[in-house]
Amino acid sequence: MRRFVGALRPLRNLTLSPVPTPLRVLSTASASSSSASSSDSDSTTAAAPDADFDSSEFALPPSGPASQARNPVSALRKLRFDPSLRARADEALFGKERDGGGGGMVEAVEEERSREVALALLEAALEPPDEDDEVGPGDVREEDQMSLSVGIVGAPNAGKSSLTNTMVGTKVAAVSRKTNTTTHEILGVLTKGKTQICFFDTPGLMLGHHGLPHRDITVRVESAWSSINLYDLLIVMFDVNRHLKTPDTRVIKLIKRLGAEVNPNQKRLLCMNKVDLVEDKKDLLKVAKEFEGLPGYERYFMVSGLKGKGVKDLVQFLMEQAVRRPWDEEPTTMTDEVMKTISLEVVREKMLDHIHQEIPYVIDHRLMDWKELKDGSLRVEQHFIAPKQSQRQILVGKNGSKIGRIGIEANEELRSIFKRDVHLILQVRVAKKRSA
């Protein structure tokens, strides 16, 4: 047994990966000390002296291509098996060598051959799928391009932003449980092969008791009503789970009004969202039967915009409805303007998750600085401008707890979306009072 333990002794040299450094809690003291130390650093990466959140205060794991050391192919290439170790182990276990003749050499050759086969199979498994049949966006001639504009409308909090983000494949609109999160139309572009689909996520529409828009409806919602006929295809969405529990007459009137207004130049879909929350799936058929008689809808889809269920079938149907015309947008991966919009939307979403009541809707949110640094990372500075000092205190929280949590979650999501390090700086200010 001692000889067997000695044969396995080389395994003691193996080491485990280090545990990532945990995030540190943001405090007023740490923020002030960071401001003092940043004066000696590069001016391009220094935060504002009165920043309420600075991502450099947190020990975040690197976001670059950090998995090279964990690449199984490179690890397998570095593996060199020593046949003498096998012989020593066999001798310790069985009391003698398994093959005292030339069989050991044959076994070593077979071992090496098996290792080469395993390496080839592993490399083939890790290679990306062949894309010879896929057409790159830059290879599509203008006369072959297909395009479709899709408007997504519905009652507030129906999940329009979540569906937009899922279909486009990245975050373009803020997602929150609060109503009227979207304050303007946000364009998401999906380019696949020769087809481009432009999604317009509009503010939530609201109907009064008489089936007409409220008199106190805001300008942005009036704009949504006037623009619904401008799209090639219109998706009318509602929360089917909420509809089954407590039917909302406003939603019913909205669906029936749009279904009754037939537009020969526009196709319309009825989209039942949040089907993953419905326990008895038979109830979905009851809802589908409730609206099946409306003439304005081409067909209906049952989806979960947040979980992605049914979204693939919806996107496939939309791709088939595209018409032959030049694309409206450049099929770039992600322009600076798109990235700036995404950064604002992500931070806004986190603010809506952590700040309640009416405060998020009275705060002005601005992008103050956007800079790509020499190391490839991004420096993003955003300011929140609150009308009152009390509102600023609520947003900042005790010892910066609220704005710290908002900044941490937003910074992690931006790093995930942009695939690079992001230096996020958030500052909460109070609006200056206008002189009479």
TrEMBL record:
The keyword Plastid does not apply. Residues 31-50 have a biased composition (Low complexity). Keywords: GTP-binding, Nucleotide-binding, RNA-binding. Residues 146-327 form the Era-type G domain. Transmembrane segments: none annotated. The keyword GTP-binding applies. Residues 355-432 form the KH type-2 domain. Residues 31-75 are annotated as: Disordered. GO terms for molecular function: GTP binding; ribosomal small subunit binding; rRNA binding. GO terms for biological process: ribosomal small subunit assembly. Residues 180-184 are annotated as: G2. InterPro entries: G_ERA_dom (IPR030388), GTP-bd (IPR006073), GTPase_Era-like (IPR005662), KH_dom-like_a/b (IPR015946), KH_dom_type_2 (IPR004044), KH_sf_prok-type (IPR009019), P-loop_NTPase (IPR027417), Small_GTP-bd (IPR005225). Residues 303-305 are annotated as: G5. Residues 154-161 are annotated as: G1. Has a crucial role in plant growth and development, possibly by influencing mitochondrial division. PANTHER family: GTPASE ERA, GTPASE ERA, MITOCHONDRIAL. NCBIfam families: era, small_GTP. This is GTP-binding protein ERG. It comes from Oryza meyeriana var. granulata.
